[in-house]
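Handout for the seminar on molecular recognition.
Each group receives one record of this type.
Step one: identify the two inputs.
Step two: read the structure output and locate the region that could contact biotin.
Step three: write two sentences on what you found, then compare them with the reference statements printed after the record.
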Amino acid sequence: MKFLYLEEIDSTNKYAKNNINSIEDKTVVYTYNQTSGRGRLERKWSYAGEDNIYASIVLKPSSEMKEVYSNLTQLLCVVLAEVFEEYKVEPKIKWPNDIKVNGKKISGILAEAVGINDNNEYFLQGLVLGFGVNLNAKTDFLSKINQPATSLNIETGLFIDKEIFLKRVIDKFCLYYNKFIEEGFLLIREDYIRRAEFLNKEVSVKVFDKTYEGIAFDVTQNGALKLRDKNNQEHILLIGDIL
Ligand code: BTN
């Protein structure tokens, strides 16, 4: 992996997307001053200070879009969980790719694809896997976020070295990456499920304008969520947000 450090930027994802052609495959774009971070579903990712992580991994696996690419967020999620465990905390995954510690969000992932449509054919220019991690956020900052949130320093009682944390994440991601592209979600399914907090629970999942309610009972070989509603009907959800 190559690293591209930016002194200050509105959003590492936005920067990576806007500069996709000049950024090489396997580059980590990162900053410690992100002024306008973005989250999933048009939400924002607030700036928690310079001792936290704001990074985007740029990948250019092929010019055609493959289904496995959408699972890369789940790979990054497992990788992040494994790194959190090195700090002796117990991360839980909220499908598809949020990480919580003690019931509070500590990290979020935003994946975006950049491509061009030409004569009804889609050419993928690159994938941008953005992630934010609360490493040393202050309690007054966290209390202002509109959902329960925590930070690794609070969970461990220690100041966390951001460079070391970032390196651990990227090293681990590289270790899995090639094999993952070949084998897909199955490679990490067990590791993902082991840390899943949502399984066998009653959940509401928002998929665009529709909300599904039921028991989340499994994650498929492709990383989709299996839900059984009160009429005993099964739904396989590829994308969505557990409310
Ligand atoms: C979410 O939880 O909704 C995803 C949050 C993703 C935040 C990261 S911070 C670095 C990268 N740049 C952005 O603008 N967003 C992602």
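Reference statements: The helical segments are 12-18, 72-86, 139-143, 152-156, 162-183, 189-194. The mean pLDDT is 96.
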